[in-house]
Amino acid sequence: MNDIADIAVRRLGINGFGRIGKLTLWHHVGRKYFDEIVVNVGRPVGGGLADIAHYLQRDSTYGALHGYLHGYRGLPVVTDLDEAEGSMRVDGVPVRFLREERNPGTIGWGRWGVPLVVDTTGQFLDPTVPGDHAKGSLRGHLMCGAEKVILSAPFKIKAKATPMPEDAVTTVMGINESHYDPRRHKVISNASCTTTCLAHMIKPVMDAFGASRILSASMATVHAATGSQQVLDRLPKGGKSDLRKNRSILNNIILTTTGAAEALGLVIPEMKGIGFIAESVRIPTSTGSLIILVLSIQESPDGPGVTREVLHTIYERAAAEDPNGYLHFSREQNVSGDIIGLPRAAAIIEGHEIHTRTAELAIDLQKVPGIPEALLKTMDSTTVRPRVTQAVIYGWYDNEMGSYVNLLGDRTVSVAEGM
After folding, report:
1. pTM of whole model > 0.90?
2. 30-65 tens-digit pLDDT
3. Are residues 160 and 216 in the same domain?
4. CATH number of the domain to which 97 belongs
5. Looking at 25, 193, 197, 318, which residue is catalytic?
6. Which helix (H) or strand (E) holds 349?
7. Residue range(s) defining the domain that contains residue 245
């Protein structure tokens, strides 16, 4: 590897080498923006570096690394393994693996000349925890030499009354990436795969009709299994209350929770004024998920109605005008396997399954709190009848590589370019 004192070398640090960590390495090896990559595994692995290389080159969902990089004619791309240095070349890119420290504060990114770290562990979510916390924290990366850290998950502040730190921000590429201020922000959340898809589904509708016409919203994500599910039933750990997380994902559809509604308000602030419910279920697939979004939209008295055709036009135009190609619109009849690995697709709108129903609501203003009695007496009728359309919109997303890691890579490079 190059001399770590060479400041012209672009280096990236990756903390964690699970699903997102490995695929993040795949992404950046293929992208070739960073000259060197340092991966903190945080523990010994099997028989050594050769077993890390074995894990790196194979994936049960996306196939072989050389196939991902170069297609079916690709040849193995891992060379120059050096067990003593913990280094190898991956498609020509020098990669070093650290296998000692799990606490971000003791990894020592400064020693390796790493200014930017992507934390993919899912363990350090609270941006308010100080860097020297005994159990580790996101800010530990900054304490040990990194200048900025990107979290591949939503922030989760344990002390609910504690405000978000001034140097922390949540962004979704293609939605609010400009909210990141390189002079101010050191800790950046890339939100979640579900929030990313949801934001790209709801923003075109909000842009078309305005937030004030969206009366309520709800979503359910039919989500592929993640590392939090169990292969077989197991006994819950002490203090755990969600017993379903200990049931086998191989045999069950498992109800769970999602923080997408809360995180959506961070990237699209207008959503905070809209009643929103978000639910999630896990299903026995390795990736490829689906959001079912239901919107109640008030009809305009002097404009076109909210119909399936109108929504098709909104999404087709938004997809065509998306400079990054994050939003896709499809008239095909898709299944989840069709969208796995689709490059940089935050959301694939299933146009074939958009449905709308319009009805007239009867609202008795006498039962609405806050309306003065004197005003009610001036009305010929205290019943108003607004027309409301309920729209059901389906959006696919590859919750690992296609919809999340690729956009995480874009966020990472954009931050690096400003450093």
Report:
1. yes
2. 999 999 999 999 999 999 999 999 999 999 999 999
3. no
4. 3.40.50.720
5. 193
6. strand 347-350
7. 194-400
